[in-house]
Design brief:
By secondary structure, the chain is an alpha+beta fold. It has 18 helices and 21 strands. It has helices spanning about 10-25, 55-65, 115-125, 160, 175-180, 185-190, 195, 245-255, 265-270, 305-310, 315-320, 350-360, 385-395, 410-415, 435-440, 450, 465-475, 480-495; strands at about 35-40, 70, 80, 85-90, 95-100, 135-145, 145-150, 205-215, 215-220, 235-240, 260, 275-280, 285-290, 325-330, 365-375, 375-380, 380, 400-405, 420-425, 500-505, 505-510. A hairpin with a 2-residue loop joins strand 6 and strand 7. Helix 17 runs antiparallel to helix 18 (about 480-495). It is found in: Periplasm. This is ABC transporter substrate-binding protein. It comes from Mesorhizobium shangrilense. Belongs to the bacterial solute-binding protein 5 family.
Length: about 525
């Protein structure tokens, strides 16, 4: 995820699409493996229904069993998948996709425009966690069996990236409808196919669902009717393994081929020559957030107070304390490597200025502040330890934090209810596109974090510039859009509501005879590229 795909002209789009066909889906001619590939990871599945699924493991599952119209190559360039070519109009309000006539579902039936229309309307109308991806879609037309025309409510230079997200999976509409799946406007109340999807799949991808045992394992089998080159692996087993130590033990004992959630400390203990450890930058980050409108605030979290809190955070020390050289600092809530996400200045550490601002705000003697957060370890960072370091930093300016680690479900209820004065949490991308960060973190009316920051009780946190930049970026493309996303990132830094801290590296640990393992911006771990 390094650059925005070039979409300046129709010719550029089509040329890139056709050129890329061979580079992604025609790697070396793998010999097919009869031995199952075993992956050890904490399975966080919330559903196997591709339009209800929303998690890290869901990205792996959806992209292995279902296909989107487009996908990303290793350099985050858009390339064909179900669509052989595509084009957008000049003002980013209409996109036309031409489906590959060779595309077939796992039952051998053709993938047609009606399946795309049905799938995307179902995604939108289920009103699930990933339904927001279709919020800007006004209408989907299918002039023939292989053409899909998508009309947008407002300009969206991000829609091609959205069309590469695994949550926009194309489902065999006939098979799913027979199982109770609905795509109508009332699908959120009439669709009853989720249980069926726990035992069946209806996609066109290299694998099909073989079995699923909650809290135990997810098993995929090769799709023998796959319409492109067959995957090397005959079977993939994702085995429930909660923590990094247990995953490492499985890898070292030979009972797993890949361990997906190894932290830096555990990685140092894995010295076998039969194990390969690869560290790559991730697009995930951990941040502190402030809520000026939280009901539990003991003092007003004005712009001056928020700036003082930010200045009191010794970010290099926080990085060293949490992950050391296994990650990097991040200044804006946009991942480094996403369009507009690079080039932000490192945030300053200045205790003298922090004290000066607090005195100016009438808090020279400091104040107490509630800090509730999920009590969990994520991306190798223990949030409790992180917040203890934040507590120590803020104590130097006489801000006393009351640390409250709580279960994630309780945290979600509190942060979305009365608000939490200070919290810490994490974010991983839902697709390769920067608009999601302004939509989620921007202080724009109705955004998730504007609500959590208590904008209704404290409207001063709203930043109208972010709304303007958001609209302008969606109407632009390429480098122009990236500049606008960067400007929006600068505004979010000035808000000092979201205070990004660290972006942990991702550690890929696998047996030395396993080939093709990589971290993907769209799909997490592309199983179709792996052999052993």
């Amino acid at each position: 995820m390094t650059i925005l795909p070039k979409t300046k002209t129709r010719a550029t789009i089509l040329a890139a699409a056709l050129l890329a066909t061979s580079t992604f889906w025609a790697p070396a001619a793998f010999a097919q493996d009869s031995k199952p590939l075993v992956i050890a990871r904490n399975i966080d599945l919330n559903s196997l229904d591709p339009h209800r699924a929303f998690c890290d493991t869901c990205q792996i599952y959806n992209s292995s069993v279902y296909e989107s119209l487009l996908t990303l190559d290793k350099d985050n360039k858009l390339i064909p998948l179900l669509a052989s070519k595509w084009e957008g109009n000049a003002d980013q309000t209409s996109f036309t996709f031409t489906l590959d006539p060779a595309a077939k579902f796992s039952d051998g039936s053709p993938v047609e425009a009606k399946d795309v229309k049905w799938s995307w309307e179902r995604l939108k109308n289920l009103k699930g966690s990933s339904s927001f991806l279709m919020d800007n879609v006004a209408d989907i037309e299918t002039p023939d069996a292989h053409t899909v025309v998508v009309k947008m409510v407002a300009p969206s230079s991000e829609f091609l990236n959205i069309a590469a997200a695994p949550y926009t999976a194309i489902v065999n509409s006939k098979v799913a409808a027979e199982a109770g799946a609905k795509a109508d406007a009332d699908a959120s109340t009439t669709d009853n196919a989720e249980a069926w999807f726990l035992q069946h799949s209806a996609g066109s991808a290299p694998f099909v669902l073989k079995s699923y045992e909650p809290n135990s394992e997810l098993r995929l089998a090769r799709n023998d009717k796959y319409w492109r080159k067959a995957p090397a692996l005959s079977e993939v087993v994702i085995r429930q393994t909660k923590d990094a130590v247990a995953q490492a033990q499985m890898l070292q004992s030979g009972t797993a081929d890949i361990a997906m959630q190894i932290d830096p400390d555990t990685a140092k203990t894995m010295t076998s020559s039969d194990i390969k450890i690869e560290t790559v930058p991730s697009y995930n980050f951990i941040y502190v957030a402030l809520s000026p409108g939280a009901k539990a605030n003991k003092v007003p979290l004005t712009a001056e107070v928020r700036e003082a809190i930010s200045l009191a955070l010794d970010r290099p020390s926080i990085l060293d304390f949490t992950i050391g050289d296994q990650g990097q600092l991040i200044s804006a809530p946009i991942p480094i490597g996403f369009p507009g996400g690079s080039g932000f200045e490192e945030q300053p550490y200045d205790l003298a200025k922090a004290k000066e601002l607090l005195a100016k705000a009438g808090h020279a003697d400091g104040f107490e502040m509630e800090a509730a957060f999920p009590g969990m370890n994520v991306y190798g960072v223990d949030l409790s330890l992180l917040m203890q370091k934040v507590q120590q930093d803020l104590a130097k300016v006489n801000i006393k934090l009351d640390l409250q680690p709580i279960p994630f479900a309780n945290w979600r209820e509190r942060v979305n209810g009365d608000g939490i004065p200070m919290t810490a949490v994490f974010y991983a991308p839902d697709y390769y596109g920067t608009s999601q960060y302004i939509e989620y973190f921007g202080m724009t009316k109705g955004s998730p974090w504007a609500r959590r920051a208590g904008a209704e009780r404290e409207p001063s946190v709203l930043n109208p510039k972010e709304s303007e930049l958001y609209k302008a970026a969606l109407a632009a493309s390429g480098d122009e859009a990236a500049k606008l996303w960067h400007q929006a990132g600068e505004e979010m830094i000035k808000d000092r509501v979201i205070l990004p801290l660290v972006s942990p590296n991702l550690i890929l640990a696998y047996k030395s005879d396993v080939k093709g393992v990589r971290y993907s911006a769209c799909c997490n771990l592309p199983l179709a590229e792996i052999s052993h």
